[in-house]
Fold:
Amino acid sequence: MSEIKDSALAASGHQKIDWAYAYMPALREIERDFVAEQPFAGLKVAMSIHLEAKTANLALLLQKGGAEVHISGCNRLSTQDDVCAALAERGVTVNAVYGCDEPTYQRHLKMTLSGRPHLVLDDGGDLLELLLGECGADGVNLIGTTEETTTGVQRLKRRAANGELSFPALAVNDAAMKHLFDNRYGTGQSTWDAILHTTNIQICGKTVVVAGYGWCGRGVAMRAHGLGANVIVTEIDPVKAIEAVCDGFRVMTMDQAAPLGDLFVTVTGCRDVIVGRHFAAMRDGATLCNAGHFDVEVDVAGLTAMSVRQWERRKDIVGYQLADGRVLNVLAEGRLVNLAAGNGHPVEIMDMSFAVQALALRYLAEQGSTLSAGVYDVPYTIDARVSAYKLQALGVSIDALTPEQREYYQGEC
Ligand code: NAI
Structure:
């Protein structure tokens, strides 16, 4: 039994799911095998992930492979109610409502785990925390978990280092076919897509400050440059800072960047990246948003406390007026802007990420019981298979080593 906003919304959800399916050739290839081989027969899969059309296609793929699928969101603002209604009509158990309060969000996660899943797909680690805490009893059947994002992998590794992880977990985020494309090009495109349609402002000639020059930050900065912005990067890692300089960006501290920026994008996976002293130094009209997993990067509570007035200026934009009259704008409550105020990554990119997820879950279904507790890389054979599907879909051929080249290059025949 699903708990969703309104089953009458299903029609547009079906349209969105079917549209995405048309652009997911890797998932369609995998579907052929899953339908024939039923790798998840008799298994329950619990998922917590941004609940929109691409994710819906992953859930349906697992279902076609024999799984009983239970799903909830991983962020209160990224759930799309029409997609939830359509998924529920297609036989997936959905517990998710856009904009619900935190207790409801937590209740939905617990409902998703309560079926005692064999496999868990997590995005950000909220299911992990429940499984290692108050929902431990729901983990009795658990073979293993997969984790979609950088922040979730960091949480898993912390738990493992403390000896607290009681099951094997595959770091899907760290697979090449995931983070090289999803984090960099996916976040790069979808963050700007969300900022542009939410604000409708011009980017060329503006000063954009990108906090964090990791996989996501590189993409966000690259696309800001492409739109004609003057880009400033802030970092804590000296190597990444030099990389940003060599890529042509100005690098400085957030204290130095705060008075210069027209638009700020945090994407660090860290907390308190933009706080009170930065707000105090910002220009009138500066706009702030976050593309990192949790809403802890921009101190929105601190800004609220500093401001004399807050009001919705436009959908997903709240203005904060400071005592001296300056107004700062925050997009999507400081939650990851590309999903809370947009449609997330491009479909073709999520086709690659979710192909890795689907094959990683199959690997766990088949091999998970032989693995001890710990965080594992996704086997390279999965990256190789997904990249082959993608090249085939792109119609791109690449060279193969001759025996002589192989001996010279790899030292083997
Ligand atoms: P990453 O580890 O590759 O990069 C993060 C960068 O931020 C690092 O270079 C680090 O040195 C830097 N950093 C950390 N604290 C900082 C601070 N206080 N100030 C300035 N820089 C700081 O991680 P990745 O893959 O780029 O992910 C970043 C965040 O984005 C994570 O929370 C991840 O889960 C999330 N993410 C969001 C997506 C989206 O759709 N919006 C997609 C994929 C990941």
